[in-house]
Specification:
Blueprint: H1 9-17, E1 22-24, H2 26-35, E2 39-44, H3 55-66, E3 70-75, H4 77-82, H5 89-109, E4 117-121, H6 129-139, H7 144-150, H8 163-178, E5 183-187, H9 191-200, E6 210-214, H10 240-248, H11 261-274, E7 279-281, E8 291-293, H12 296-304, H13 310-333, H14 336-345, H15 347-367, E9 389-400, E10 403-412, E11 419-423, E12 438-442, E13 448-450, E14 453-455, E15 458-459, E16 461-463, E17 469-471, H16 491-494, H17 507-511, E18 515-517, E19 523-525, E20 528-529, E21 531-532, E22 535-536
Parallel strand pairs: 2-3, 2-5, 3-4, 5-6
Antiparallel strand pairs: 1-6, 7-8, 9-10, 9-12, 10-11, 12-15, 13-14, 16-17, 18-19, 19-20, 21-22
Helix pairs in contact: 1-2, 5-13, 5-14, 6-8, 7-8, 7-9, 8-9, 10-13, 11-13, 14-15
């Protein structure tokens, strides 16, 4: 796919900009292409495990290489550390290695040679004296307002931001100079950082760069894929069966072409990877036979007209995606060294793999009629550590359009986008008291439809015998996303919270009787207070009251 071919400057421009949402500096881009090869970089913070949404930028990198560009991939380990210290340095070093293996494998799976790619670790130059002095120089020109605004789409936004989050955009801007590139490529969510760079780099005496932006493509499983949420993403090492199950659950409403991640994956990955415009949906003859579309526009039109059944589209995407993932899975399955790297960089994956392996052995023993069934792995204790309680800020609350006893809230819990939460608090808490307040939310309940609106968390309240209801209040200086914990049941000690609470196992229902406010009105679990890094969580007036 990335094989060299003599292209005109116009052809290179078309290839570089195809499927982009926006280009800042197109005239400068044309000038460079008329004179020499374009030098461009794409950066990724080495935090959670890469998932299949990474195929979208990989396809553009393939375009850049076909256009003769010199491409640098930056593994932004320092950025990963600054982004709320998501991982310690020992893990970040290992994660850089894992990212390099996965990204090279992804490029190889779509037919891209990595020989012409340069891979750079951020801390290989970002800790140099000159770079640090430039950070200080930049700090004398940038306002707090501009720094916060620049990171609004990519850095966790809180009322009282950490200095690390304000530094983040400046470092990304300086990377353009220190990597010696003409252009930076990223998602359109990076636009404010790009315009920040265009404003402030010339003030340091550095050139204004070109900026190329991909659209934000909906995740295959609905909404945005998140590395921290196993149910929202398709990991690069998920089994073929898991891929099929997750895509089966994807949002792919018949006739909907605007919020359809399955359809967009065809446009931004499968068609570019194939090297041709045609897309084929294979079907049995008894179901009407294969559907052939000469280009994406034809497929999109047919889907909009409800001429393509969503399940047929899902099946076609599943088959094509598994073909892309097969060589990556095989590479890891055949290498103990890569397995060790995975489990060292992401220790939780080792525990998951051990559990799956033991379950498989037990199943095999049962199938073979063993007289001595294998011992079951010890079940994890059902306690407070299983619950994912976080501080959230209710950005907006309004009446549910179909239910007079329900509110619909938009709640910032420190993620990229606010979560929609439906609460049965209408008539108990005045609507005006819901607006803008901090609360504690249970964030790993399985999303539930409540009168037509899907709720993605639960606001925690103390409830008195007479029905008096009070929203639990964390300290005023907490930030959205701050963890709520109980001493002795910390996640560091007992393990991370469940990704999603399985309703059939009644985990929350088992724990709930031990949740109640203490004599001093502090929220409690088995007599121990709920805590944040800033202090305890409290009710306003209710003591010895159940928490629901």
């Amino acid at each position: 796919m990335a094989s060299a071919s003599p292209l005109s400057a116009e052809e290179k421009l078309s290839l570089i900009t195809r499927n982009l949402q926006e280009t800042l500096g197109e005239e400068a881009l044309k000038k460079v292409l008329a004179e020499r090869e374009l030098k461009i970089y794409w950066g990724t913070a080495t935090t959670g495990r890469p998932h299949v949404a990474y195929f979208v930028p990989m396809c553009k990198i393939a375009d850049f290489l076909r256009a003769g560009c010199k491409v640098t991939v930056l593994f932004a380990d320092l950025h990963a550390y600054l982004d709320n210290q998501k991982a310690p340095w020992d893990l970040l070093r290992l994660r850089v290695q894992y990212y390099e293996v996965i990204i090279k494998s992804m490029l190889e799976s779509i037919g891209v040679s990595t020989d012409k790619l340069l891979f750079v670790r951020g801390t290989s130059f970002q800790l140099s004296e000159k770079y640090i002095l430039d950070v200080f120089r930049l700090s004398t020109t940038v306002t707090q307002h501009d720094a916060k605004k620049a990171g609004a789409e990519v850095v966790k936004q809180v009322e009282h931001p950490l200095l690390s989050g304000l530094l983040y955009p400046g470092l990304q801007a300086l990377d353009e100079e220190y990597l010696g590139v003409d252009a930076q490529f990223g998602g359109v969510d990076q636009r404010k950082i790009f315009t920040y760079a265009e404003k402030y780099m010339p003030q340091l005496g550095y050139a204004k760069r070109i900026h190329l932006m991909n659209p934000m493509v909906p995740g295959l499983t609905g909404g945005k894929m998140s590395s921290s949420d196993a149910e929202s993403k398709i990991d690069m090492l998920d089994s073929a069966d898991d891929v099929r199950k997750k895509i089966r659950k994807a949002f792919c409403e018949e006739g909907n072409v605007t919020e359809n991640g399955v359809l967009m994956f065809v446009k931004y990955v499968l068609i570019p990877v194939s090297g041709k415009d045609e897309f084929v949906i294979s079907r049995l003859e008894k179901h009407g036979g294969d559907l052939r579309f000469e280009n994406f526009a034809a497929l999109e039109k047919a889907f909009a007209n409800k001429e393509v059944f969503p399940l047929d589209l899902k099946n076609a995407v599943t088959d094509a995606l598994n073909l892309l993932m097969d060589p990556i899975r095989a590479k890891f399955d055949g290498s103990q060294e890569l397995q060790d790297l995975l489990h060292s960089a992401y220790p939780e994956s080792k525990a998951a793999a051990a559990g799956e392996g033991k379950a498989a052995k037990e199943a095999k023993g049962a199938k073979g009629g063993s007289k001595q069934p294998a011992a079951k792995a010890p079940a994890r204790e059902v306690d407070f550590s299983r619950l994912d309680f976080r501080v959230g800020r209710i950005v907006k609350a309004e009446m549910h359009p179909e239910a007079e006893k329900l509110y619909v809230e938009s709640v910032d819990i420190g993620e990229t986008e606010p979560r929609t939460v439906v609460s049965g608090l209408a008539g108990r808490i005045p609507l005006e008291q819901m607006q803008g307040r901090l609360a504690v939310l249970l964030c790993n309940l399985k999303p539930a439809n409540m009168r037509g609106v899907k709720s993605h968390a639960m606001v925690m309240c103390a409830v008195g015998e007479d029905g008096t209801t009070e929203i639990l209040s964390p300290p005023a200086d907490c930030a959205p996303g701050d963890r709520v914990f109980v001493q002795g049941y910390e996640h560091e000690k007992c393990g991370p919270p469940d990704e999603v609470l399985n309703p059939k196992k009644k985990v929350f229902e088992t724990i709930q009787p031990d949740l109640q406010t203490l004599d001093d009105k502090t929220a409690g679990y088995k007599g121990l207070p709920w805590m944040t890094a800033q202090g305890p969580v409290i009710a306003q007036t209710l003591s010895s009251a159940p928490i629901r």
